[in-house]
Write a structure and sequence with these properties.
By secondary structure, this protein is of the alpha+beta class. The chain is built from 11 helices and 5 strands.
Length: about 400
């Protein structure tokens, strides 16, 4: 911001101080000249000239903070001067034009319309106070000059008012756009944080659960099968490396844009559910996969959602279903949707919970983003079931 812009901003924020100072300076200049003019003409007492000058100039201190009241006060003093039959007290009567301009620019619309009508009416009254309208050409000239000057000032004030309103409208629009931009940025940031939280939860929870299950199982099975710890450690290593790769890919979006570009890999999709089930089998889970219907090409987001829901559901089986559950994973293709169902015969409703509930919440959030639904709860007869249904786009080719 330049020095001139700062000065204008300060002047706009301190309107009364600026206008009051200018009104005081005008009084210092105009009061002696009005007294001298009245003394020279001899038609008006110097006291009346002083009172009229103060009455016309002093209200200008409020010409922007209270334009309607300020203009009314100036017009009232000018009307009393005309009705009293006093001649024009030059140059103090120019305050009427200043008041007209101020109310036109800063006052309400009705106020400046009343002000111009009052100025035109005052020009007619001024002619009658100076002399007869039909007999005095000087009176008609003064009246005409006053009316033309008032119309010119009013027209100039309207131009300034239009420009001021346009600038205020542009500033208001800029403020609203900035507010909307900030709100959209906050919404986008919150959505991205939620997405990263879901991805982090799915990757970390699933991988750590598999690693913990392998570590515990390898420790218990070491006495009966000496090769069990070796297999468990191999599975732990593979799971840890896969989780580390996913974490690096996910956190790559948070790196500085000036740094090296992260390596991009395809996101898992519905076709990777089979590999996920195989991973669970390698960790010791009795899991089976059943596919029904004609597979179709899914959008990347829908395919990733199916995979993550299956991953979270299998992770919950490892955490809560108890020892050696039997797990069935069903992927069913309907004409207009895909259904994923993960069920087990474990503890069901009697299973302990960690009290966080982030897994089921993440499933529902993922499905909702693609107009899908997720239901989860105990099965009749024991066990637990998670069922997700997501609509599929029409017209997809069978693969």
């Amino acid at each position: 911001m330049t020095s001139w812009e700062r000065l204008l901003r300060w002047e706009e924020d301190h309107r009364f101080v600026v206008d009051a100072t200018l009104a005081a300076l005008l009084l210092v200049v105009l009061l002696p000249s009005s007294i001298a003019f009245s003394a020279a003409t001899g038609n008006v007492s110097t006291r009346l000239a002083a009172v009229v000058t103060v009455g016309l100039v002093a209200p200008l201190a409020w010409r922007r903070t209270a334009p309607t009241a300020s203009t009314a006060a100036v017009y009232f003093v000018a009307l009393l001067q005309v009705l009293a039959g006093a001649p024009i007290v030059f140059p103090a009567d120019a305050a009427v034009l200043v008041a007209l301009y101020s109310v036109t620019v800063h006052g309400p619309r009705w106020a400046h319309r009343v002000a111009i009508a009052g100025a035109l009416l005052g020009s007619v009254l001024l002619a009658f106070s100076i002399g007869s309208w039909t007999d005095s050409s000087g009176a008609r000239a003064v009246s005409l000059f006053t009316a033309v000057a008032a119309l010119a000032v009013w027209a100039f004030g309207l131009l300034r008012r239009t420009r001021r309103e346009r600038i205020e409208a542009l500033e208001d629009r800029a403020r609203r756009l900035e507010t909307e931009r900030d709100q959209q940025s906050k919404i986008a940031t919150a959505a991205e944080r939620a997405r990263i939280a879901r991805e982090m939860h799915d990757i970390v929870a699933h991988s750590l659960t598999v690693m913990i299950a392998q570590a515990d199982g390898g420790r218990y099975a070491a006495e009966a099968d000496p090769s069990a710890p070796t297999r468990a450690l191999r599975t732990i290593g593979e799971t840890g490396r896969a989780a580390l790769t996913d974490m690096r890919r996910l956190l790559g979006v948070l790196r500085d844009s000036d740094g090296p570009a992260p390596e991009f890999q395809p996101q898992p999709a519905e076709t990777d559910v089979g590999a996920l089930v195989e991973q669970m089998r390698a960790s010791g889970m009795r899991a089976s996969l059943v596919r029904m219907g004609s597979p179709r090409t899914l959008p990347p987001g829908t395919g990733l959602t199916v995979y993550r829901i299956a991953q979270e559901a299998l992770t919950n089986v490892l955490k809560h279903a108890g020892p050696d559950p039997l797990v069935n994973v069903l992927v069913q293709w309907l004409p207009d949707a895909i259904v994923l169902e993960v069920s087990d015969d474990g503890r069901g409703a009697s299973a302990d919970s960690d009290g966080l509930g982030q897994g089921l919440l993440g499933m529902r959030e993922r499905a909702t983003m693609f107009a899908g639904t997720v239901s989860a709860g105990p099965r009749p007869g024991g066990g637990f079931r998670v069922r997700a249904q997501l609509p599929t786009p029409p017209g997809q080719e069978t693969r």
